[in-house]
Design goal:
Blueprint (H helix, E strand, L loop, with lengths): L3 H4 L26 H14 L7 E6 L5 H14 L8 E8 L8 H12 L1 H14 L3 H6 L5 H9 L5 H10 L6 H6 L11 H17 L2 E8 L10 H15 L6 E8 L8 H4 L1 H7 L4 E3 L6 H15 L2 H11 L12 H11 L8 H17 L7 H11 L2
Parallel strand pairs: 1-4, 1-5, 2-3, 3-4
Helix pairs in contact: 4-10, 5-10, 7-8, 10-11, 11-13, 14-16, 16-18, 17-18
């Protein structure tokens, strides 16, 4: 029997699933929501003027496409960089993990490890090549001489560079290790702002060598796992400092799950965070609102995932009751799928729609049918959208 991808004329993929974490090329896709896509692009363009880097929150229910949104925005920044961006976007996707006792130090460690020692060391070396006095140049990036000393040490070789990196990530050093680098304290001893100062200083360094540091932080609903009051407050202070107008060098695009905004992590909806990020930079990714929107989403997906020339050849060869844009669905089955998807508005979400397309196509292939018909949609969709 013909393999599934060939049966339905798929282009370089095994099925109809979209997942940029498995197939990075899928990051370019953003189907059926041009209004949201245009709004997000506009906010990014504006952000590079003020506050200087993007500070954006994307939220919605499970399955609404928040992760795809973050990857699409990363693709947009890298391939169609706004003219307002004075530098090359250096984007980092991080799936944040938080426990009941997690603090700002845990969050900072995750961001720094995603950034990586070699990246920062490379920026220090590039700065060294550009200036006549590295010490002075580093001191211009930060108000804290400890940070300047630790960054300078990254250019060196040997154990000291690893000790400096450990300090920058917030790990505690022994007294001898601190004195060996002429550092006066452990990072974070004076609070979460101490940690943010390192990140902002590194962002300043990136800007100095022509790059813009932007984190894509996903699954921030994990913040709700933090139960200890002091731990939660330290994380709140960390985000508050990152959101400050004074931070024009480290951007963040945050995604979190929430059916309604009141369900979002309390830290991210506190007034001092929202006021700094700005209400227009909290973007809701809701269910697709109408049958026509579902049809647009499905049609755009099918046009992009299917080889249209091969599909047209199959339509002609087998005299199929379909057309490009709805193939491999029969016309009536395509309409029926859209109806099923919108019977419960809360289920009219990309994850469920894509799952339904896959399940319908697999059943059609298993029955050796060239098209998904109404019988297959009825047998599959009632469970997917239940």
């Amino acid at each position: 029997m013909t393999e599934f991808p060939k049966w339905f004329c798929l282009k370089d993929r095994l099925n109809f699933t979209i997942d940029p974490q498995i197939n990075p090329d899928d990051a370019r896709f953003y189907f059926g929501r041009d209004d949201i896509k245009m709004r997000l692009q506009r906010q990014l363009r504006r952000a590079f003027i003020a506050p200087g880097v993007p500070k954006l929150m994307v939220w919605g229910p499970y399955g609404s496409g928040k992760t795809q949104t973050l990857f699409y925005l990363e693709h947009y920044l890298q391939t169609d960089t706004p003219s307002s961006c004075q530098g090359v976007p250096h984007t980092l996707y991080v799936t944040v993990e938080m426990r009941s006792n997690s603090t700002a130090s845990h969050l900072h460690m995750q961001l720094m490890e995603a950034l990586g020692k070699e990246t920062v060391a490379g920026w220090v070396r590039r700065l060294f090549d550009q200036v006549s006095n590295l010490d002075a140049a580093l001191q211009e990036l930060t108000d804290d001489p400890n940070i300047a000393l630790a960054l300078k040490e990254l250019r060196a070789a040997g154990d000291s560079t690893f000790v400096a990196w450990r300090w920058l990530t917030g790990q505690s050093l022994k007294t001898g290790e601190l004195s060996g680098l002429s550092l006066t304290r452990n990072l974070g001893d004076v609070g979460a702002g101490d940690l943010v100062n390192v990140l902002v200083s590194i962002g300043n360094l990136a800007s100095r060598v022509g790059e813009k540091l932007i984190f894509l932080l996903d699954e921030l609903e994990e913040l709700q796992n933090v139960k200890a009051g002091d731990a939660s407050e330290s994380i709140h202070q960390y985000f508050r400092r990152l959101a400050e107008p004074a931070n024009a060098s480290v951007g963040f695009l945050i995604g979190f799950k929430a059916d309604v905004f009141d369900d979002s992590p309390q830290i991210l909806q506190r007034g001092d965070i929202m006021g700094r990020v700005g209400p227009s930079n909290y973007v809701d990714i809701p269910p697709l609102p109408a049958v026509s929107d579902v049809k647009t989403f499905v049609s755009e997906l099918l046009k992009n995932l299917i080889d249209q020339e091969q599909a047209q050849a199959s339509i002609t060869e087998h005299n199929l009751d379909t057309e490009l844009g709805i193939y491999p669905f029969e016309r009536s089955a395509f309409e029926l799928l859209a109806d099923y998807a919108t019977q419960d508005p809360a289920r009219a979400l990309p994850r469920y729609i894509i799952n339904a397309i896959n399940e319908c196509a697999i059943q059609a292939w298993d029955e050796e049918k060239h098209l998904v018909d109404e019988e297959i949609v009825n047998s599959v969709a009632q469970y997917v959208f239940a």
